[in-house]
Amino acid sequence: MSSRKKVLLKVIILGDSGVGKTSLMNQFVNKKFSNQYKATIGADFLTKEVIVDDRIVTMQIWDTAGQERFQSLGVAFYRGADCCVLVFDVTAPNTFKSLESWRDEFLIQASPRDPENFPFVILGNKVDLENRAVSAKRAQQWCQSKNDIPYYETSAKEAVNVELAFQTIARNALAQETEAELYNDFPDHIKLNANDNGRNKDGDNCAC
Amino acid sequence: MDDDLPTDFEVIVVGTGMVESIVAAACSRIGKNVLHLDSSDHYGGLWASYNFDGLQKFIKEVNADPKRQWPVYNLSEKWYIEKESSEPEQNEDKKEGDENKTDDSKAETQKKIWSQANFTAEYRKFNIDMTPKLLFSRGPLVELLISSNIARYAEFRCVTRVLTWLNDRLAPVPCSRADVFATEAVSIVEKRMLMKMLTSIVGYNEEEMNNEFKDWNDKTFKEYLTHKGLTPNLIHYVLYAIAGGTDKMPCLEGVKECKKFLMSLGRYGNTPFLWPMYGSGELPQCFCRLCAVFGGVYCLNRPIDKVEIKTLDEGKRVVAIQSKSKTLNCNNLVVGIDECPKEMLPTEPVETSDISKAVFITNGTIMPSEKEPLTLLRFPPLTEEGHAVTVLEVGPATGSCPKGLFVVYFITKMVKDAESDLQQYAARIFDFSGDQTAESDKPKCLYSLYYNVKDTSVPVQSVASEVHVCAGPDVGLDFDRAVEQAEQVFKKICPGEEFLPRAPDPEEIVFEDDVTHGPEFARHDDEEGDAQ
After folding, report:
1. What is the DSSP string of A77-136?
2. How far, in Å, CA of B256 to CA of B136, rounded?
3. Which regions are flagged for Basic and acidic residues bias (chain B) (predicted)?
4. Among A58, A47, A33, CA closest to A160
């Protein structure tokens, strides 16, 4: 745990379509905001290194790629998440009401080891807009009732609180990860990549 | 909500099995506008993985509706353990968080007595495959995952050993050069013979007719191996374990299978095989994600009722699909064989032999080893009319089951029915007594499920050229046929286009703001964000 080995945190962002999940991610990682993404390539996941308590942490932030639109996120998306960010749009009360079911869905699909203490963070996005419909108080109350989930009011467009929120996300995910490392009996996962493509490293390519 | 579903697409894909998902990804990747549907609430169709609860629901669903023509039949499920644990809950199962804080090595010295209730409580930790398969480390699927960059969505584990059934017991098969030299089961003379023979197999080239094997076209692989002077033990290893064959296996087929095995050695681990983390059911989802990232629209829980080909005024044909009282239109419909409406299929059924399968959940591995093993076991046929049986044993490290358990899959071609075909093999490696306290050199079987699956892997031509039917899972060990068929379907829909070119890494994605462009298109505020 105290090892200096590289830490990779998988963070997934959930919430109704159009609340600004992709924009938040893009603002945090690329410091950019766009009203329109290149139509052919949607959001996948973005990676950013952050420093938490002198440790370098790589955050891998996974977007839903639009599969949430018709409730069609597969269980594979949720695998191995270290933190879950739930986003709603402060101008759209329905998206706030959905938080509960997104949280439940996450707990069912990801089935974290310790659901009671799994790190969630709630973001009320689009606070730059005039037509606010969900008050900060109401959002805070809900978060408190759910085992004190941290709550931030953000604007991906104007970069309000985005950095701060993701710092908290990294910190809380790391705390979870540190605990999880205790039980990590199964390293040795293999990621396929082209580096060893066809390469015959130890001369043991075929038994001849 | 469903009414938001757009209705016009270039390609509509129905069914999220392996072949359909690869086609969906390939079409979306080159810019086709894709809608991907599935009638059930999860991905994978016949290729899905289920947690324990999902598996129970699936069994119930199939058994409750015998009239619907399920490709799965003869399901027979059996428990070998008590419903509730008889002794009072002592330590582990009550509080999961606490359990994990104790030192596991201590807990494991005392074997847990499992009850059905434990399975129910930990149902989420199971990922049980309907179509368990391995990947050859240098096989077409691994190459495709890497070249398309879809590999970033998946994780794998190496199969740690290959076993066979030799002289009435389990025996490890030497896989690598180091293994061959280290093994005491093979003498030095045999080793030389084996190496020579394997060298000629690796040199085998299908196109080149003037080769070592030119006179072996109509003979069996066993005859070839015997001719090469291999001893019975070596013939067993090569024929049954490496080639996965039987005495009747044609020579060239055996050579091809062996070559595939040998060519995949030495890339990732000690054996030529990889197993996907959380099971084979993850792989279709990886392709679906790529499809979605490139704009594909996903809608599960969306059965289709009817498919018609309509001719428009200009003579242009479209496929019109009725689904939940909505009409969806497309130029090309790609549909999994299990979701395809009958009117689109040829009336003459294709003749195939079906598949017998079984899933066993046990309290230990079939052959203890230092680290948790991941095993491929190949049985030669034990009866005259039987076929070779493939066994895959996966443990908790693969995300397939809770700690202390193993999931073991059996697969063979059907002769009679799954239970009669496979029970005798299972009896050789498991203890079915159900008595978890009694000493035994075999792992105890706690749960078993036998079932048959229609072999729907033969390509079927639909009655309309715009409708492309995707084959179901085959009996084979790997995904090679699925990849091949997906590519063929794609080529028909998008002739001349590249099949799954490399997707850019997220860092390479250029957002609109980075490029010079005209004035921004004014959009309504509530649409900002989530790009589709």
Report:
1. HHTT-SEEEEEEETT-HHHHHHHHHHHHHHHHHH--S-GGG--EEEEEE-TTSS---S-H
2. 13
3. 514-526
4. A33
* Interchain CB contact of B155 with A (< 8 Å): yes
Helix, strand, coil percent values for chain A (each to nearest 5): 35, 20, 45
Which residue of chain B comes nearest to A107, CA vs CA? B124
Tell me which chain B residues have a C-beta less than 8 angstroms from the C-beta of A208: 177, 195, 198-199, 202, 262
Q: What is the pTM of this model?
A: 0.90
What residues contact residue A56 under an 8 Å CB cut-off, 6+ apart?
A6, A7, A49, A50
Say yes or no: B243 contacts chain A, CB-CB below 8 A: no
Mean predicted lDDT score pLDDT of chain B: 89
Tell me the per-residue pLDDT of B445-478, one tens digit each, with 9 for 90 and over.
999 999 999 999 888 889 899 999 999 999 999 9
Taking Cα atoms as reference points, which of B116, B122, B86, B102 lies closest to residue B437?
B86
Digit-coded pLDDT (tens) for A149-169: 999 999 999 999 999 999 999
Are B523 and A35 in contact (CB < 8 Å)? yes
- Measured between CA atoms, how close is A117 to chain B, in angstroms? 10
CATH fourth-level superfamily of B59-125+353-453: Guanine Nucleotide Dissociation Inhibitor, domain 2 (3.30.519.10)
Cross-chain Cβ contact A207/B396 below 8 Å: no
Cβ distance of A40 and B294 shorter than 8 Å: yes
Q: Tell me if chain A has a CB within 8 Å of the CB of B195.
A: yes
Angle at B4 between CA A43 and CA B306, to 5 degrees: 110
Q: Does B282 lie at the interface with A, CB-CB under 8 angstroms?
A: yes
Run of H or E residues at B51: none
What is the ipTM score, two decimals? 0.89
Asked if B146 lies within 8 A of A30 by C-beta distance, the reply is no
Instruction: Assign a CATH topology to domain B168-275.
Output: Guanine Nucleotide Dissociation Inhibitor; domain 1 (1.10.405)
Q: Evaluate whether B258 touches B173 at the Cβ level (below 8 Å).
A: no
Helix (H) or strand (E) holding B13: strand B8-14
Q: Is A59 helix (H, G, I), strand (E, B) or coil?
A: strand
- The pLDDT tens digits of the residues spanning B182-219 come to 777 788 888 888 888 888 888 888 777 667 888 888 99
Q: Which residues of B touch A197 (CB under 8 A)?
A: 146
Can you name the CATH fold of B2-51+278-348+458-508?
A: FAD/NAD(P)-binding domain (3.50.50)
Give contacts of A34 with chain B, Cβ < 8 Å: 511-513
CB atoms B142 and A192 under 8 Å: yes
Q: B349 CA to chain A: closest CA distance, Å?
A: 33
- The alpha carbon of residue A140 is apart from the nearest alpha carbon of chain B, in Å, by 23
* Domain contains A189: no
Q: Are B357 and B409 in contact (CB under 8 A)?
A: yes
Is A16 part of any domain? yes
Exposure string of A143-179, with b = 16+ CB inside 10 Å and e = fewer, is beeeeebebbbbbbbebbbbeebbebbbbbbbebbeb
* B289 contacts A76? CB cut-off 8 A: yes
- Strands of B406-413's sheet in order across: B72-79, B445-453, B355-362, B406-413, B389-394, B375-379, B161-166, B169-172
Q: A195 to chain B, minimum CA–CA distance in Å?
A: 10
Structure confidence by residue, pLDDT tens digits, B106-151: 444 567 899 999 999 999 999 999 999 999 999 999 999 999 999 9
